[in-house]
Amino acid sequence: MEPEPRPRVELFEGPEVPPIADPEPDVSRETPPTAAATATLPRPTHTRVIVIANQKGGVGKTTTAVNIAAALAQGGLRVLLIDVDPQGNASTALGVDHREGIRGTYEVLLDRDAIAWHAVASGEAPNLLVLPATIDLAAAELDLVAVAGRERRLADALDAYLRDHEPDYVILDCPPSLGLLTLNGLVAATEILIPIQTEYYALEGVSQLMRTIDLVTQNLNDHLQLSTVILTMYDARTRLSAQVADEVRRHFPEQTLATVVPRSVRIAEAPSYGQTVMTYHAQSAGAEAYRAIAREIAERGARG
After folding, report:
1. How far apart (Å, rounded) are the C-alpha atoms in residues 61 and 233?
2. What is the pLDDT of residues 96-129, one digit of tens each?
3. What CATH number should be reported for the domain holding residue 143?
């Protein structure tokens, strides 16, 4: 016998507040793809190597990396994601084993192993390969200090990989810092994507990152350019999110994508199941946002 519903408690006097919508019902971990999820995306004119970086933590950097990678691959594109973060969260979200002892990014950087030796297929989408990161990568910054050409280790490995393979996109997920691992990502890439959380401290640290980008382009990689800014954790109910979004668009009018990533329980839940939101809940608002972002990125790439 079901219990009787409790009476509504009036906390405030005045006009009635609209009721809060019921949460989404529980769903299967394997929701069927929508037509949009299987739509083919245009191929870029050349391989695009995109580093996702922001030394400010908690901005949705890894979440953005894995969901864009999965969305692009679901759209029929060939994608390689390189996990450069010792936490290995991107490897976890893409369902790739990265226990201690698994060979991956550390061996590519320190032992000069070939990327192709350790890149493994992700079950999140066809044509999606992942170079995993293990906890060993945490020691890489110290191990690289005495190595000649330490900031070019990843670039050299990627150049060798691209001579024999033709991915449409290479996505580099970096740690939330501006150390040697992130520097390797910046030197290896031709584009940088910055996720910015739509909260009060959104632009804090971005100016420092921009100075680092300037130093890299002047001294190590003159091909690197800021191509994309994505607004994450957008809450349409708050005036603050809209104000921060406006401020970011003023600073980066050409680079900021039209689509924003909403705050989403489904996006947050997905990694705990070793999935991206693209397969965990394909019809959720978060998955739809990342599909739209992938299309914006792909269409820009197709224009050259």
Report:
1. 11
2. 999 888 999 999 999 999 999 999 999 999 899 9
3. 3.40.50.300
